[in-house]
Specification:
Oligomer: single chain
Strand content: 25-35%
Strand order of the largest sheet: 1-8-4-5
Number of strands: 8
CATH topology of the largest domain: Elongation Factor Tu (Ef-tu), domain 3
Mean pLDDT: 86
Structural class: alpha+beta
Number of helices: 5
Amino acid sequence: MDYIIKDEKLELIYEHGKGAWTYHLRIPNSKNIDGKWGDIKVSGFIDNYKIEARNLAPIKGEDKMLSINGEIRKAINKKGGDFVTVTLYLLSNKEKITEKQILETFNEAGVLKTFEKLTEIEKNKILESITSEKNEDKQIKIIVKQIDKLSSND
C-alpha cells in the first residue's frame, strides 16, 4: 500500500461556509501528489472509522483536503478543533472525471438526495456543465458551486 500518512494526529478543521468542506482535514505533505478532481482517491481510517475510495480535493500549490461529513463525525464523535488519528493510502485511478464520480462526490457531500429530486433536465444540465469542462480547476469550481447550491436547497 502506498501510505500518504500513517497514524498521524490531525486537527478536524471547521471553516464556516465551505459547503462540503466545512469540516475537513488538511493532509500534510500531499501538495505534490498529482491528479485532477476524481483522480486522487484514498482509503484508510479516521480514528477507528474505515473510509473507502474518498476524493482528496486538489488545491493548487497547497496540501489536499479531505471532506469529513456528518456521518463520519458522528461515528468518531468529533467536532471542529478536535484531533483525530489518520491513516490514509492512495488508490490509483487515472481516468477522466465521470458522472459516477460526480454522484459519489454529491453523496459524500450529503447532497445526492437533493440532486435526485431535481427534474431529469436539471440533473443533466448540472452533470453536463461539469463533464463538458476541459479545465480541471474550472471543473472543481463548478462541482463546489453545485454542492453549495444543492446544500442550500435542503
